[in-house]
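During the second half of the funding period, the structural biology subgroup turned its attention to how the target accommodates small molecules. The most pressing case was flavin-adenine dinucleotide, which had performed well in the primary screen but for which no bound structure existed. We therefore specified the complex as follows and requested a full 3D prediction, including the ligand pose.
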Amino acid sequence: MSGAPRIAIVGGGLGGLTLARVLHVHGIASTVYELDASATARDQGGSLDLDPESGQRALLHAGLLEEFRPLSRPEDGELRLLDKDAAVGFRSPAPEPGERDEGKERPEIDRRALRDLLLGSLPEGTVRWGHKVRAVALGVAGRPTLTLSDGRTVETDLLVGADGAWSRVRPLVSDADPVYSGVSYVDCLLHDVDARHPAVAELVGRGTMFALADEKGLIAQRNGGDRIRVYAAAKAPEEWSRSGLIDPADPVAARKRLLDLFPDWDEGLRALIADSDGPLVPRPIHALPIGHRWDRTPGVTLVGDAAHLMSPFAGAGANLAMLDGAELALALTTHNDLETALNAYETPMFPRAEEAAAQSADNLTGFFRPDGLRIACDTFTAVTSGSGGEAR
Ligand SMILES: Cc1cc2nc3c(=O)[nH]c(=O)nc-3n(C[C@H](O)[C@H](O)[C@H](O)COP(=O)(O)OP(=O)(O)OC[C@H]3O[C@@H](n4cnc5c(N)ncnc54)[C@H](O)[C@@H]3O)c2cc1C
């Protein structure tokens, strides 16, 4: 690209930071406007498994794949599917050290560690913390302009919305809004699990465990630091999450109400909720329409959830956000003309995101049917065939 374009990235999540990093590797400066006050302002959520074709490929372009490896946890790659009596329906073991194939595996990493890796790789001042973007518009000569919450305006040559599900940038290119999926999560966390909750640790194993029945689920995953994160999931009206029934400020009452949703489930499974510590956080699951896309809008594009928010049931959102960021940066370094570069980025991104969004929507519908466990066993048997997964 000729000259030095002014690139404003709204949102310092995994998509926006990967974009800024790969641009930096190619000598292009950008500014990331992030509403959080600092890197530690907010819990970054659970563990992610990084796919070789998307998340890991993005890290390769970012020059960070080798630094990622020691931070990742391939040993936490086990998958278990259980019924509500805790009987195992499917199990896929984590690779043994001698059987590992770095090119094929999807090692886990805590989100915070991954975000910190990206943040630490950016020049000082790239991320403007505490800079909430309040509005965006096409200003003089059609140049994208953003307005910060303190009233300041910034004109750019390229505006990238990397600002997640409720993107402020998206309305510049599209009328689409996220739609509630019909399923809500409640996040719970257990600390010091090996010492304080050995039975829970044994039940979950080294990786991720889904218990599915009655159109509900308890999904537990090993996180770093001897923690297990639990998503209790159920079909519920959208208002349920906002009703105050599960109040993060009153974890004792919230825990009891959540347990009431799983009355006849195995006590070991109920312990995933009963033994949790800290606040319980309700999280309704939304998605953009499958196949969301937009007409080319000069000087503006989207990456990650802003472009293709989907439910977590394909394990793809963060992986795709990172790949989007890397591929947009590469397109900008390859093409001199901005619009040609944006076209080159968007053209393969749309169908790639559509495929993952369709998969995640199918999985969500299937897993929360009365026979959800059977559907999940079939799905994961197909995904892991050849890598040791087996139905019981
Ligand atoms: C429960 C759950 C489990 C998941 N598990 C997985 C998984 O296992 N694997 C996987 O690949 N994906 C998973 N996902 C999906 C994944 O979390 C997202 O797809 C991913 O975080 C998207 O990254 P992003 O950078 O596009 O957006 P985000 O991570 O949402 O980052 C957006 C950033 O923009 C900032 N921002 C927002 N608005 C503004 C504004 N107006 N001004 C300035 N800054 C702003 C936010 O503070 C945030 O830092 C999961 C999602 C959920 C909810």
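Two results from this model are relevant to the next phase. The chain has two domains: 7-72+107-176+289-367, 179-287. The first strand starts at residue 7 and ends at 10.
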